[in-house]
Amino acid sequence: MSLSGFEKTLFAIDTICKNNSIPYALIGGLSAVVHQIPRTTQDIDITLLVDIQQIREIGEIILTEFTPLKDDPLGFFEKFFVLPVYYEKTKIRVDFSAGLSGFDNNVIKRSQRVNFGKIEISLCSVEDLIIYKLVASRLQDLADIEALFKIHHQNLNRNYLFKIAKGFVEVERSDIVDKLENYFSKFH
User: Which of 5, 69, 157, 188 could cysteine-pair with 84, CB 3.0–4.6 Å?
Assistant: First the structure.
């Protein structure tokens, strides 16, 4: 079976996570591609369901298959909750994020197993991807949100989106609710 670089890298991620009982979800730009958004991306973003006490252990497991991009990768993972690595066989960068928040936990629990080319992966929902992208709010993220709304607006779980967005008001991110309202107004 001939696999693309992304398929090979995602297969390695899925295998290491399944073999070590680490729940995960694909998020970020490649997730947008799987959700039918025509765009390019250079890397893979993964959120892992971990407890803070497990960060070093999970990092050690990941480093058995992936090459670190930082001098002290485990220290970096413990401090910033992101482990930037690349897969030696494909040279594709992967950012593993420690999903420590209730939102991250929910994203992973709501993720679905889907086909990506010739392999199967755990993919975050469209709604959760929209929330991640609203939080980041970089130009590419806003373009992705617009494209996601164009394709999926009739099937979005509006109640879920606003419930999660309103939770970010508590951390002084009321702009997330405002942006979400604007997108729903635009695509009604």
Answer: 69
What are 32-91's pLDDT values in tens digits?
A: 999 999 888 999 999 999 999 999 999 999 999 999 999 999 999 999 999 999 999 999
Positive/negative CA dihedral, 6, 8, 11, 15:
negative
pTM for the whole structure? 0.93
Cβ atoms of 132 and 32 within 8 Å: the answer is: no
Same domain, residue pair 105 and 14: yes
